[in-house]
Write a structure and sequence with these properties.
Elements lengths: L1 E6 L9 E8 L2 E9 L6 H4 L8 H5 L7 H15 L6 H30 L3 H26 L8 E2 L2 E2 L5 H35 L24 E4 L10 H4 L4 E4 L8 H9 L7 H25 L20 E7 L2 E9 L5 E7 L1 H13 L7 H7 L4 H4 L2
Antiparallel strand pairs: 1-2, 2-3, 4-5, 6-7, 8-9, 9-10
Helix pairs in contact: 3-4, 4-5, 4-9, 5-6, 6-9
Length: 386
């Protein structure tokens, strides 16, 4: 006999969400994961506003993915208005994106550390070390982006100010120290993930699905459709409560994020399951720090960083800004009129794209693993209800 289980809220994720499970003999037949956060209407809010205001507003969509939303909106407006940005600005934006990626992944380690450590003191020590790394990364965000939460240096046309050589040298020293700490932290994290799987006798492929993977490199070559959960799920109370959207890729679901990037950039062959997702996310922290260091060491960042051309367009061309956010493909679309005001705005976020992947990962698994599977995707519910 199939019964229904409702779990609310899902702890240790970013934002208020709910999970409805159809269960038969303790096995999940179907799982519906969705947001309960009120919609704030950023796309509507930006209509008839000056295009230069958009990066400021976009950073308020989420306190975690703030900078990548600002960069995506700036890129979309630049595309709509044919504004080319200096190469130095592109490098500085890459620095910011990499910093946000590491900063987010490290927070996820803190969120799930309660499942990993039996000893509270060891967990406390682990969290303290993670926070040391995050503090260093936040220095990059603050220096280059102009702020940790609301990065004011991200503007239409590039970055508002360059990085002078003495500042760059200080950041290199900081990132070198962060690398040392991160190597140890990642080793400890992966060790405890392996121990958790062994002690609880979890399946190696727990949370596996058969969906394709997508990154920003392929996104322009596929069909994208944004729908409401109510259009495909008829469950109550989901039909009344769900506030997020769901993204279909070629009329189907897909997974975006760290595993997709690994496949795309390194021709990685995925094993499937959430254990792999945790390990790849941990490894990407160190890779992000290494790429930050590479940019700081090899690029001249004290050159011109901003094209001050005022953003205007014909109100016809749709500008698209695509950024690889920590959780995957982040897309902003915009139209700008001849006076420089926004007439159309649309946002597609990674968590909305991953909703079907989460649902597929739940099928066929034991009900006691449901929350573990959801958390492995590190869903950002605030973003999904922009």
């Amino acid at each position: 006999m199939i019964k229904r289980i409702e779990i609310e809220p899902i702890p240790l994720t970013e934002g208020h969400s709910k999970l409805i499970l159809k269960v038969d003999k303790n096995i999940i037949v179907e799982g519906f994961y969705y947001a309960l956060v009120p919609v704030r209407g950023f796309g509507t809010m930006l209509l008839d506003k000056e295009a230069t205001f958009a990066p400021i507003a976009a950073s308020r969509i989420c306190g975690m993915c703030q900078a990548v939303h600002s960069i995506a909106t700036a890129k979309a407006i630049e595309d709509a208005c044919n504004i080319e940005i200096p190469e130095t600005a592109q490098k500085l934006r890459e620095l910011i994106s990499l910093s946000v990626r590491a900063y987010n992944h490290l927070l996820h380690h803190i969120l799930i550390s309660g499942n990993m450590f039996k000893n509270p003191q060891k967990r406390h020590t682990f969290i303290k070390n993670v926070q040391k790394i995050r503090k260093t990364v936040s220095s990059i965000l603050e220096t280059v982006g102009g702020g940790i939460i609301h990065p004011s240096n991200i503007v239409i046309g590039g970055i508002s100010s360059p990085i002078e050589t003495p500042v760059k040298e200080r950041l290199i020293a900081l990132i070198e120290e962060a690398e040392k700490l991160a190597k140890e932290e990642i080793e400890i994290f992966i060790h405890h993930i392996e121990r958790l799987w062994k002690e609880q006798k979890l399946p190696e492929n727990l949370g596996e699905h058969k969906l394709p993977f997508i990154t920003s490199k392929e996104i322009s070559n596929v069909s994208i459709k944004e729908i409401y959960p109510q259009e495909i799920f008829n469950e109550l109370p989901l039909k009344r409560e769900a506030t997020n959207t769901i993204i279909l890729i070629n009329e189907n679901g897909a997974e975006t994020g760290v595993r997709a990037r690994k496949i795309r950039e390194e021709r990685y062959k995925p094993k499937g399951g959430i254990k792999e997702l945790h390990k790849l996310r941990a490894e990407e922290i160190l890779l992000s720090l290494k790429n930050i260091k590479r940019i700081l060491e090899t690029e001249k960042l004290d050159k011109e960083t901003r094209n001050k051309q005022f953003p205007t367009s014909d109100n016809e061309k749709e500008g698209v800004g695509i950024v690889e956010a920590p959780r995957g493909v982040n897309i902003h679309k915009v139209k700008v009129d001849k006076s420089g005001k926004i007439t159309y705005y649309e946002i597609i976020v990674p968590t909305a794209l991953n909703m079907i992947a989460i649902a597929e990962s739940l099928k066929g698994e034991k009900v006691e693993y449901a929350e573990m599977i959801v958390r492995a995707y590190d869903p950002c519910i605030a973003c999904s209800t922009h």
